[in-house]
Amino acid sequence: KYKFSIAFLDMDDTLLNANSWEIIKRMSGNGEDHFSEYMLGKISYPELLSKSFGKKQVCQNEIMAKAEQAEPRPEADTLVYIMKSLGIEPIIVTAGLCEFARAVAEKLEIGEYYCNELEYRNGCATGAVLVKVEPLRKIELIEKIIAQKNATWREAVLIGDSPLDFDSRAGLNIMLETERYSSWTPPEWILRVRSLISVPVFF
Fold first, then answer.
1. Disulfide: which of 29, 47, 190, 199 matches 186 by Cβ 3.0-4.6 Å?
2. C-alpha distances out from residue 39 to 43, 45, 126, 156, 200, Å
3. 3-state DSSP: the chain helix, strand, coil percent, rounded to 5?
4. CA 76 → CA 104, 166, 198, distances in Å?
5. pTM surpassing 0.90?
6. Average pLDDT estimate for 100-114
7. φ and ψ at 68, to 5 degrees?
8. Sheet arrangement for strand 113-121
C-alpha cells in the first residue's frame, strides 16, 4: 500500500445523494440537457450550463436555501473523519455549484473546495457561470493541486461516480456505484463500492 496524503472528493451524486445542477434545472422550470453534445465537443461547457436553466427566474436566496437543505450522505461524515485521522487531506473538486459545495464543506468540515460559481444580477441568477471546474478538464485541475501541495499522484485518492473523476496515475481510484453510470464498466484500476462507508477499507 502507498501512504496517501490527499483525497479528491466529487460532490454531485457522491458526497451528496443529489445533483446540484439537476436541482437548479427543476427550480428554473427544467432546462435542456445537452451533456452528450458537450462530450462530443459540439458546445462549450459554459454553453451547456446556460442551457441548463429553464425560463423561470431563480434567485440567490432560493438557491442558498436549497443548498442548506441538501444533506451529505450519512456515511460521508465518517469517511472524512477517518481520512483526517490517517493524515489524508480531503478536498472537494466538483463541477457542481459553489453554493452547494460550500454548504457540504461546512457540514463535513472540509477546508478546501473547488466548484463553479453562478453569476447573479439584482440577486437572481443570470444563467452565466464562472467555470472553475470543467468535467473534461477536472483531472488537469487535480494535477495542479497535487503539485501545489508538493504531493505525488501515488499519494492521491480519487473518489467519485463519473468516468471523468478518475486517473490511472492516482494511488487509489474509488467509484461509488450510482444509477447515473450503472451501464458503465470501469477499468480494473478503478475499485467500485456501493457505499462510502466501504472506502476506508482500501486506505
1. 190
2. 8, 9, 24, 26, 32
3. 40, 25, 35
4. 10, 19, 11
5. yes
6. 98
7. -70, -30
8. 124-130, 113-121, 89-97, 6-9, 156-160, 172-176, 190-193
